[in-house]
Design brief:
The chain is of the alpha/beta class. It is built from 14 helices and eight strands. An eight-stranded mixed sheet has the order 1-2-4-3-5-6-7-8, sandwiched between helices. The chain is globular, with a radius of gyration of 19 Å. Its EC number is 3.3.2.10.
Length: 331
């Protein structure tokens, strides 16, 4: 991507790849990707925000892309990953007391943890897709998901090391990535053991139709990176969910105290999961996040709303951060 700088940064015992663009003294916006994603998901926001005077910084999280991939899932806890980001901020934004934060999917979850653990570092958080859910002290996450959605719920299917990786390899990573990015399945994501990824009988056809917002070059980029790294690093975030539950016991009942704007697509699989709309709009979300200032539902957009509607998402991000800057007079 034109004008985007790439470099490696040593953080928290690993080496992390980052993409960045914008004036060196501009307010830093940290952009955190999800699964199975990369810094590349923010390509449009990097260009858009940097043109508005921000310094956009988008890492490949540990386990992804050109960053290091520790082997054990126990090295992918919220404490490990937030530790990476705190060290990254010290490296790239050491002259700024606070930064702006944007997260999508697992990046949203990590963003919530960053706001929970180190709120003094964050000016404001734009969260895409995954709202904050306070810790349930009575039920471990995977057990809870299995009880509600069954054994074939995607998070449950991701738990056994090596198993889902073999299924992805059997189906072809290109199919897996294409269907995940461009699919519009509503509600909870179920992966039946028979044909979990909807294999195409001609997966390498050049005539496969892709939506206008996701080109063959985009798909090729993702495929090239995941063919190199595999998917285990990203899957390890799911395998550490119960460990996160144990580690975050001291934060049971804690509220988010950072200004927040939440965005989602109206066809997002998280937003259309039973009970989620009621939680987001019915007062549960704002009770857990007293500093929630805005909720935006973008029409005709799925899970990867930042890629599907890049200009709209970038404008919403800038609008929120501009309001915070005007209120704080600390630009």
């Amino acid at each position: 991507m034109e004008g985007i700088d790439h470099r490696m940064v040593s953080v928290n015992g690993i080496t992390m790849h980052i993409a960045e663009k914008g004036p060196k003294k501009g307010p830093v916006v940290l952009l955190i990707h999800g699964f199975p994603d990369l810094w590349y998901t923010w390509r449009h926001q990097i260009s858009g925000l940097s043109s508005l005077g921000y310094r956009a910084v988008a890492p490949d999280l540990r386990g992804y892309g050109d960053s290091n991939s520790p082997e054990s899932f126990s090295e992918y806890t919220c404490l490990n990953v937030v530790g990476d980001l705190v060290a990254l901020l010290d490296s790239v934004a050491g002259d700024q007391e606070k930064v702006f934060l944007v997260g999508h999917d697992w990046g949203a979850i990590i963003g919530w943890f960053l706001c929970l653990f180190r709120p003094e570092k964050i000016k404001g958080f734009v969260c895409l897709s995954v709202p904050y859910r306070s810790r349930n002290p009575k039920v471990k996450p995977v057990q809870g998901f299995k009880a509600v959605f069954g054994d074939d719920y995607y998070i449950c299917r991701f738990q056994e090391p090596g198993k889902i990786e073999a299924e992805i390899a059997s189906a072809d990573p290109r199919i897996f990535l294409r269907n995940l990015f461009t699919g519009r399945t509503l509600g909870p994501s179920i992966l039946p053991k028979d044909n979990p990824f909807g294999e195409n009988p001609n997966p390498h056809s050049e005539n496969i139709e892709l939506p206008g917002w996701f080109s063959k070059n985009d798909l090729d980029f993702y495929v090239s990176k995941f063919e190199k790294t595999g998917f285990t690093g990203g899957l390890n975030y799911y395998r550490a969910m119960d460990l996160n539950w144990e580690l975050t016991a001291p934060w049971t009942g804690a509220k988010i105290q950072v200004p927040v704007k939440f965005m989602t697509g109206d066809f997002d699989m998280v937003y259309t999961t039973p009970g989620m709309k009621e939680y987001i709009h019915g007062g549960g979300f704002s009770a857990d996040v007293p500093t929630l200032q805005e909720i935006v539902v973008i029409e005709d957009a799925g899970h990867f709303v930042n890629q599907e509607k890049p200009q709209e998402v970038t404008a919403h991000i800038n609008d929120f951060f501009t309001k915070l800057q005007d209120n704080n007079k600390s630009f």
